[in-house]
Amino acid sequence: MSDCFFASTLSDSQLGHSVVYFEPEQRWFYLEPRDDLYHPTTEAKLMTLLSALLVRCAEEMPAGVDKVNLFVKFRADETLRAVVKKARSVLAAEATFFSPTSPNRRIEGEEQHGQLARQFIGMAIKPQRGHLLSVNDCYAGFAGFCRNNGVEPVARKAFRQLVADIIKEEFGVGLRADLKDSEGRYLRGWKGLAVEEAGRG
């Protein structure tokens, strides 16, 4: 039995499924067609999938072909476990597979907030001379944007660094802690930027 060949069948577009082993988290994910998102799965479920594929293969074989290996030997737990273990390297995905700039999305993934942050900044954050954009105002706008897209917003602490990097990249403006509002109070934020209401939704 070729472990590499059968490992590759776990993720085959012709068979209608996509599976990856996300190395940074050492977790398995499969693509759910109903929402076009990757969902976490287990090696036990992948063993069941492989077993079902072998049965399907046996059923499609001509009547005169010996099917004992497909029905019995290849479907033994020890064999299935070895194939799934081999699939970790065959179907390995690096950190870039799930990233804010990747088209691949997973359910409740950290990168989902990164993708939404880029969309929000592109749609809602605009240069405005003399204006101060506080972290609080920016977060309030982003939180509403997330909820409008059916996603719970990231925690405020994580949000600050998340958007700071993107805003720096997009506008060349760094996050500052020495800004003062109209009442003379210090605040964290960006100088020369504003949130447009039209971009919040």
Explain what the structure shows.
It is a single chain. The protein has 201 residues and is of the alpha+beta class. It has 2 domains: 3-97, no CATH class; 110-199, Arc Repressor Mutant, subunit A, CATH 1.10.10. It has helices at residues 3-8, 43-59, 68-73, 77-90, 110-124, 135-148, 156-171, and strands spanning 19-22, 27-32, 37-41, 92-93, 125-134, 176-180, 186-195. The protein is rod-shaped. It has a 4-stranded mixed beta sheet with strand order 3-2-1-4. Strands 5-7-6 form a 3-stranded antiparallel beta sheet. The model has no long low-confidence stretch (mean pLDDT 85). The longest helix is centred in the N-terminal third of the chain and has 17 residues, at 43-59.
Give the structure's gist in a few sentences.
The chain is of the alpha+beta class. 44% of the residues lie in helices and 21% in strands.
